[in-house]
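Sat 14:20. Reprocessing the chain from the morning session after the first attempt stalled halfway. Input below, unchanged.
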Amino acid sequence: MKRLLTLCFAFTVAFLISSCATIHPNQKYLIGTWKPEKLELAHMPNHQTPAAGSQGKTNSGAGETKPLAGTAEQTTIDKKQISKSKLADLRSSMTFNADKTVIKEDLGKTIHATWKLKNHGTRLLTSDKGTGEKSTFDILYINDTSAVVIESFPSFGLKITYKKVKK
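Finished this time. C-alpha cells:
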C-alpha cells in the first residue's frame, strides 16, 4: 500500500511538472528571425502628454482646460521622436532563440538581450544585456509568418508590423 501511494505521488509530481513546462503558442511562433516591414504611430489613450501650444484649449463647453488629445502638434512631436529614435529599426532584424536570448542586428552593430513573455503570451519584455535597457511590446497578432506589436514609450506608442524571414 505504501509503495502504491509513493508511486501515485511520483506520477502526480511528474504530471504537474510536465504540464507547467508547456510552451505558449506565441513563444513557438516567436522563435526565428524577424524583420520590420511597417512602422506607424499607435493610438495610446493612456499617453496624453500636453503638446506645445495646446494649453488653454478645452474639450468641453464647461470651461475645463485640458489639452486636446491627438492634436496636430502632438502628432508632429511624436513623428520627430520616432524619426530620431526608431526609423533605424526598419533596417534592423531580430533573432529570437529558444534559450530566451535575442540578437538584434542594427546597422552593423549587434545587440544581445534576453526576452520573456508575460500576460498569457501577449506581452513581450526584452532587456539589453549590455545597458540593461528594457523594452515592452504588446503582441496584437502573431502567427508563423507575421506579427503586429505595439512598443510603448513614455509619451507615445509605435505599432510595428514584422515579417518572419527565417525560422
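The first strand starts at residue 32 and ends at 42.
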